[in-house]
Amino acid sequence: MEFERNRFTHAIEAGEKQVGIWITLGSNLAAEVVAPSGYDWALIDTEHSPGDYFSVLGQLQAFAPYETTPIVRVEWNDPVAVKRMLDIGAPGLLFPMIQSVKEARQAVAATRYPPRGVRGVAGSTRATKYGRVTNYVQRVEAETTVLLQLETRAAMEQAAEIAQIDGVSGIFFGPADIAADIGKLGQPMAPEVWELVRAAAGAVREVGKPAGTLVLDARLAANLLNEGFTFVACGTDTSVLARGADGLLAAVKDGIDRPRRLQ
């Protein structure tokens, strides 16, 4: 049995625009609801969610029959967490809060077997279809997506250098933490935030690497992809649910006849 080609890895390398969604509920059922929608990629979050290894496993299984590529955001740049997520079959990883070239190299190393890295070796895992994928060790580096998240001004100043590290598939910008870092806590859409993000994304593209981000506005997501961002998530499962629930209730209440006042 051969290693399956990672569509997302090769799509962003080729500059193909990829639309994604954030998955934060930690539920295989919620993931299964989203999976048939046809997003190019979905981010299964464990940094800001109740997700654990078993819930991630269930979400990966929910996406498995569909074309959407699930990427897992590990809770931290921790080689143990990386090893376990890769062993349960994560096709790619997003590393939060990368602050330096050194940390970026450590993240990549956690996804590589020796002598190129520090990932521990296990044979019969879900990633290898329990030992059936005969060329796993030969193909895993080329197929696994490795995304690094930059979330501070200092990190973005190193964006181009970090992007050029061998093994980095792309750079992701986190507007909420960038806003906090520059004194705009709670204002991820502030012009000052996006001035920094766009400049750093441009530097990343100049060295030939794709840039991505997350926004909660469909029009902005499309505009960013048109501007040169390669992979953009346009919402979260929780935001879709909340907006849908609020909108439905408001629509019904707006249609209810108001009681007439007694004369």
Q: What would you say this structure looks like, in words?
A:
The structure is a single chain. The termini are far apart. With 263 residues, this protein is an alpha/beta fold. Helix 2 (28-34) runs parallel beside helix 3 and helix 4 runs parallel beside helix 5. An eight-stranded parallel β-barrel has the order 1-2-3-4-5-6-7-8, surrounded by eight helices. It has a single domain, classed as TIM Barrel, CATH 3.20.20.60. The chain has helices spanning 7-13, 28-34, 53-63, 79-87, 101-110, 136-143, 153-156, 159-163, 175-181, 191-206, 218-227, 237-255; strands spanning 18-23, 41-45, 69-73, 92-95, 145-150, 170-173, 211-214, 231-236. The protein has twelve helices and eight strands.
Briefly summarize what is shown.
The protein is built from 12 helices and 8 strands. The protein has 263 residues and is of the alpha/beta class.
